[in-house]
Design brief:
Elements: H1 2-15, H2 23-55, H3 60-84, H4 87-111, H5 114-142, H6 146-178, H7 187-207, H8 230-242, H9 245-275, H10 282-314, H11 317-321, H12 323-337, H13 341-365, H14 372-404, H15 409-439
Helix pairs in contact: 2-5, 2-6, 2-7, 2-10, 3-5, 3-8, 3-14, 4-5, 4-7, 5-14, 6-10, 6-13, 8-14, 9-13, 9-14, 9-15, 10-13, 12-13, 12-15
Amino acid sequence: MSGSGGVFRRAGRLVADIRRDEWPLAVAFAAQFFLVIAAFWILKPLRTSQFLGILGAKNLPWARLTTALLVLPVAAVMAYLSARLPRRRMLLGITVFFGAGHLLFGVADRLLEPAWVHVPFYFWVDIYVTSSVALFWSHLNERTAPGDAKRLYGLIGAGGMLGGIAGSSLSGFLATTLGGANLVFLTAATTAASVPVLLFIDRRFRAAPHAPAAATPEVPPSPAGEAVPGLRAAWDGAAMVLRSRYLIGILGIVTLYEISSVLADFQFSAFVVDAFPGRAMTDSRTEYLGRFAFFTGLLGIAIQIFATSAIQRRVGVGAALLVLPAAMASGAAAFLALPALWTASLWFGADATLNYGIHQSSKEALYTPTPVDAKYRAKAFIDVFGIRLAKAAGALLIWAMVALGSDPRPRAVAAVAIVALWIRLVVVAGRRFDRGGMVGGNRPAGTHEPDQ
C-alpha cells in the first residue's frame, strides 16, 4: 500500500506540487480567477457577435484603437487606487463596480437601440477583463515567492481555464435558447460569489500573514510610503519599466503576443462573419463563438492540469513561455498554405487554447522576483496601457495590410515574423528569471510592505 501511495503522490506532484497548508489559499485564488474569467467568457462571445452584426469585421481594428484611447484613464485610476486604498477595499470595490456595470448594460439593451448599447458594450468588456485580470495577478504575485510560483500557478491558472469553459458553455449552448442579451444577467452570480472568496483570502492572510515575495534589486522601487496620485501613478509605472531591462523584456513579450493575437483574431472573425452574416444571426453567431471557446477551453484545461506545472518545474518558466508562440507560428503557417475557416480556427485556436493556461501563468511568474511596487505599478502599466497600445499597433498593421489588398496571406507572413522575435525575447527573459530566482532573500532598499 505504501508503494502504491508513493506512486499516487508522485503522480499528483506532476499536476500540482502543493503542500497541505497551501491548499486553502491556492484553491481560493483559483476560484477567484475562475469567477473573473467565467464572467468574461459569458460576455465575450456576446459582445463580439453584437459588434460584428452591427459594424462587421472590417471595423474591428477601429475598435482596438478606440480601446487604446480609453486605457490611459483606466491605468491612472488603477494605479491611484493601488496607492491609496487598502487591498481588500480596492478588490471588493472594483469587483462590485464591474458586476453592477454588466447588469446596467443588460437593462439598457432592453430599452435602447442596439447601436447605442452594443458598441460601448464592446469596450466595456475589454476594460473589464484588462482591469480585473491585471488586478488579480498583482494581488497573487504580491503574496507569492518566486520559488512557489512554479508550484502554485499551474493550479491557479487552471481555475481560469475552468472559468473559460464554464462561461463559454453558457454562451455556447444557451444563446439561442435564452437570447444573447439575457446572458449578461448571469454575471450577477459571478460577482456575488467573488465577494466571499475575496473575504476568505483576506481573512487567511490577516490570521497568518505571509512574508512578501523576495525581490531582486533589478527593478528600482519607488520611495517607501509614497502616495502617487492619478496620472503620476501611471507614469511612475512606466518609469519603473524603462529603468529595468527585465521589465522591458516582459513588456516586449506582452506586446508581440498581443499583436500576434490581434492578427489571428481578426482573420478568425472575418471568416465567422462570412459564415453567420448580419444582425439577424447574432444569437447563432454568439452560440458558435461560445462553442468554439468551450472546446478550445477543454483542450486548454487538459494542458494546464497535466502539463503546465510539470513543464515549469522540470524545464523552467522560459520553456513554458515558448509553447504558445510555437503553436501560433504553426497555425499561421497552416493558414498561409491554405486560407480557410478551419485553418483560421487552428491559428486562433492555438491562442484560445494556450493563453489563459500555460502562457499566462508562466508570464505572470516572471513578476515574482520583482518588488511589490513593480507588481502593482509597473505591472499595471504593462497590463493596462502596454497591452492596449500593442493591440492598437496590431490594428494599425491590419488596416495597412487590408488597404494594400484583400489577400489574407501577407497577414500570416507578418505573424510568423513577429512570433520569431517574440521567441527570442522569451529566451532572454527566461534566463533572467532563472538568475533572479536564485538571488533569494534580500529585499531592495526602499521597498515597502504591502498594505492590508
